[in-house]
Amino acid sequence: MNTGSTDPAAAATAAHSGGGEGFVELRGITKRFPGVLANDDISLDFRPGEIHVLLGENGAGKSTLIGILAGMQQPDAGEIRVRGASVRIGSPRESLELGIGTVFQHVLLVQSLTVLENLMLGGAWWRRIDRDAALKRFRELSELLALEISPDALVGRLSLGQQQQVEIVRALWRGEGVLVLDEPTSMLTPEGVRELGQVMVRLRDEGVAIVFITHKLQEAYAFGDRISVLRLGKLVGSIDKERLSGMDEQAVTDEVIRLMFGSTEGHDQDAETLSGLGHRRPHLSAERQAEEPCLNLRAVSTQGDVGECPLQDVSFSLFPGEILGIAGVDGNGQKHLAEAVAGQRLAAQGEIFLEGAKIERLGVPDRRKLGIRYITDERLGEGTVGAFSVAHNVVMKEIGQPPLWRHGISLWDRIFAHARGQIREHDVRTPSERTPIGRLSGGNIQKVLLARELADDLVGEAKVVVFNKPTYGLDLQSTRFARDRIRRGAESGLATILISTELDELIELSDRIAVMFQGRLAGIVENGEGVEREIGLLMTGAAAA
């Protein structure tokens, strides 16, 4: 890699007067990880006054490229030029000093601090904190972005859209150059997406270069001036500004699908998923609604470690065949809720009933025997052991139990045969049941988790299943597989809790949607027209409408 230039601040200052067409120019960027070529000779320009959309499946190389721009990773080859000067971005601080601000998918603000306190974090320890100067800068950026947020407001009391606006202010705090937005709209309501779009347009018109990473084609069409598509680490094509301006939404969709998959044939479902237009599941039938609840939580609270958000007085009922979606900004108690239902975390207060029987004192094995299953969001580590084979991981929660063990002796022929059956049924792409699971893709690891938790032949019938972010980080095919599996389970009578950071996913799959806010259940709404607005209000802690 070319490392020939100067310190970042000097490069940014010296380059104001000259350089190439792009504020940031990437030339031949290559990044390797063990067994993976994440970025393969990528060359891109990010130009002032332009919203440049980056599209591509999970694993296409977008996150790696953004990590390089943010100074979190170093390329193995290639050159980065900022305002015409060749630079090495050695750290996130150097990235900011060069005028590159990054807003990541998940909010990184400190919820218990005010807006201004968050913006002042990270300054040099030897400098005196200058509140007046910080207020002046905040007012400048608020005027630029047309924000109406008090600098003294607690961040935890802001809506997700407002928190993202504060993140944008923080990204621009040291100067307006390049703003990188990494999947910023997953849990935004339509109103929040529109507000973010207005902010991007204002910044673009002020000459800021905006890099907008999304997986939603509607957003790419609505906001993009230029679209580039990555596939398997390569830049496979772009739609430039002039051409894009003459295309309608369907033409853009067809072109992006062609670039992502090589053709448009047979990819109608991919287009639906990318556009957020998946078919909504029919609501729970009147017959099912008349049944007794399968699961009841009554005033359940948990205890949390430092930095965690425990549950506080959570109550709800879940019916057979129902999918109850759980929405909210990540970190508002969703993990504790999943673990409290599964038995991984015992309730500090309250009661949990499964088909009328109290289970809050039972651990994971006993709850599994009664029919409760949990698919964790941490696929490697908590969900599976990467160095163990697929077969080991499929039976991991039944070790020592018949019919695959007898008197403590492993019956390997039966274990491997069972694993092969699950691999076929769930279409797990693996060389063998003996392959270490850590070598599989995220989508195939997720299929193994589904096979283990939903199989009835070893531990009995599943009655309640908790999915925690089941499609996060998956490619389109694996996303569709997981969503179809969730639907099929509910149609067979399985009571389902679906925790997701994708609002489109919750609206597509759920019968009702509950919103978590600071460990409490802010409210539960019936899925239907206009539900996005109700969810948006609840995500701020407002009372249910």
UniProtKB/TrEMBL annotation:
Annotated signal peptide: none
InterPro entries from the UniProt entry: AAA+_ATPase, ABC_carbohydrate_import_ATPase, ABC_transporter-like_ATP-bd, ABC_transporter-like_CS, P-loop_NTPase
Keywords: ATP-binding, Nucleotide-binding, Repeat, Sugar transport, Transport
ABC transporter domain sequence ranges: 24-257, 295-543
Entry-linked Pfam families: ABC_tran
Any one GO molecular-function label of the UniProt entry: ATP hydrolysis activity
Name of protein: ABC transporter ATP-binding protein
PANTHER family in the cross-refs: CARBOHYDRATE TRANSPORT ATP-BINDING PROTEIN MG119-RELATED (PTHR43790), GALACTOFURANOSE TRANSPORTER ATP-BINDING PROTEIN YTFR (PTHR43790:SF9)
Keyword field contains Nucleotide-binding: yes
